[in-house]
């Protein structure tokens, strides 16, 4: 994992926030509380995601970073791992990527599994700092992720970093809204 360092003063806009390695297994409930507020999750959804996060962390190349205040409050996090076509996410998105001629993105890619910033700290550069820091430490040629398929600040950030839509209107079982799968070459684009 990358060493802890302060988020870029120019990009973060939040003095004192530190972006660095996160023991996500130890702080999973704090991270999911951030995700619940940022993403609007119910307690049942949090309970399901807790098991998924912990299972992902069993992967030896899983990485996690957190954004913490000087008091130690977790206000953002990102985690991901190298993609594997046998993983559930890949099996869902593969037919959509195949239909757009983009299925090769499932190989040699680092998946951004989750990236969330507490709403009080959004639009301050923390999401950018988290995703660029985690992907800078990856020895793969590209990154992929999925995001709700709507024009949003998150999709705008991903596009600014070089992510492009690979497939849209991707339906995940039990997800109420369609997603877009996006991919970018690494390293991510800087301003």
Describe the structure.
This protein has 191 residues and is an alpha+beta fold. The protein has six helices and eight strands.
Layout of secondary structure:
Layout: E1 5-6, H1 9-12, E2 18-21, H2 28-39, H3 43-56, E3 63-68, E4 74-82, H4 88-99, E5 109-117, H5 126-136, E6 142-148, H6 153-160, E7 164-170, E8 179-185
Parallel strand pairs: 5-6
Antiparallel strand pairs: 1-2, 2-3, 3-4, 4-5, 6-8, 7-8
Helix pairs in contact: 2-3
| Strand coverage percent | 25-35%
The parts where pLDDT drops under 50 for at least 5 residues are: 1-12
Element-by-element helix/strand order: EHEHHEEHEHEHEE
Number of helices: 6
The end-to-end span amounts to 24 Å
Radius of gyration over all CA atoms, rounded: 16 Å
The count of β-strands is 8
Describe the strand arrangement of the main beta sheet, using strand numbers.
1-2-3-4-5-6-8-7
Largest sheet: 8 strands, mixed
Give a quick set of tags describing it.
191 residues, alpha+beta, eight-stranded mixed β-sheet, 8 strands, 32% helix, globular, disordered N terminus
Describe the structure concisely for a colleague:
With 191 residues, the protein is α+β, with helices and mostly antiparallel strands.
